[in-house]
């Protein structure tokens, strides 16, 4: 009896941490395991998400061999709000719905926007901000001088060590239930 219960618990726990069928806002399923993926955590009403979403899509065009996806943490936003964001900021990448925060918590994401480059099996190669343009909430430089995300993607694709694998994200805090 104990062995059966133990096996059942292990199976249930491992099923809870799999990300091989994450659904997007259009109902399509995406496998995040066993292949590199680039993610942007976003909130439709976050000003920095609105600004960086266009840059994220442009970056995807520069790295066509990688999959770029948005991640919408929680269930605060309606489909109408997401559609408005997509239309307003030309965000043409699938947006995964992480209603229960499982992916968000597993990756340690706390802020939108937050950018991740994941190698196979969800191993984090880069996590943090896009660049150093924003220096604080509602504070920015005339133009960025550090391009953390682009540099990480370039190194990742070249098979090189990423010089700065983590930067402290800046933006809107994710409201966990």
Topology, please?
Blueprint lengths: L1 H15 L5 E2 L5 E2 L6 E5 L5 H16 L4 E7 L5 H10 L6 E4 L3 H6 L3 E2 L1 E5 L5 E5 L5 E3 L2 E2 L7 H11 L13 E2 L4
Parallel strand pairs: 3-4, 4-5
Antiparallel strand pairs: 1-2, 3-7, 6-11, 7-8, 9-10
Structural notes for this entry:
It is a single chain. Helix content is 33%, strand content 22%. With 177 residues, the chain is α+β, with helices and mostly antiparallel strands. It is globular and about 35 Å long. The chain has helices spanning 2-16, 47-62, 79-88, 102-107, 148-158; strands spanning 22-23, 29-30, 37-41, 67-73, 95-98, 111-112, 114-118, 124-128, 134-136, 139-140, 172-173. The chain has one domain: 3-Layer(aba) Sandwich (Glutaredoxin), CATH 3.40.30. Strand 3 (37-41), helix 2 (47-62) and strand 4 (67-73) form a beta-alpha-beta unit. The protein has a 5-stranded mixed sheet with strand order 5-4-3-7-8. It has 5 helices and 11 strands; from the N terminus they run αβββαβαβαβββββαβ. Mean pLDDT is 88; it is low at 1-16.
**Rg for CA atoms:** 17 Å
Distance between the termini: 35 Å
DSSP strand (E) fraction? Answer: 15-25%
Largest sheet: 5 strands, mixed
The unreliable regions are 1-16
Going by CATH, the architecture would be 3-Layer(aba) Sandwich
Can you tell me the number of structural domains? 1
User: Quick one: how many beta strands?
Assistant: 11
| CATH class division | Alpha Beta
Side-by-side strand order of the widest sheet:
5-4-3-7-8
CATH superfamily: Glutaredoxin
CATH fold-level label: Glutaredoxin
Percent range for helical residues?
Answer: 25-40%
> Overall mean pLDDT score?
88
């Amino acid at each position: 009896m104990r062995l059966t219960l133990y096996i059942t618990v292990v199976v249930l726990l491992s099923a809870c941490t799999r990300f091989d069928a994450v659904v997007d806002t259009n109902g399509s399923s995406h496998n995040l395991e066993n292949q590199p993926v680039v993610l942007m955590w976003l909130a439709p009403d976050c000003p920095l998400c609105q600004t960086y979403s266009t840059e994220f899509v442009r970056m995807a065009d520069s790295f066509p061999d990688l999959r770029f996806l948005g991640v919408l943490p929680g269930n605060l936003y309606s489909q109408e709000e997401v559609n408005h964001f997509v239309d307003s900021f030309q965000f043409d990448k699938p947006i995964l719905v992480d209603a229960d925060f499982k992916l968000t918590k597993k990756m340690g994401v706390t802020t939108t926007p937050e950018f991740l480059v994941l190698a196979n099996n969800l191993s984090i190669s880069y996590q943090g901000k896009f660049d150093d343009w924003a220096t604080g909430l509602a504070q920015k430089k005339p133009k960025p001088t550090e391009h953390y995300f682009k540099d990480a993607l370039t190194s990742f694709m070249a098979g090189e060590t990423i010089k700065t694998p983590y930067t402290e994200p800046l933006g809107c805090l994710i409201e966990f239930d």
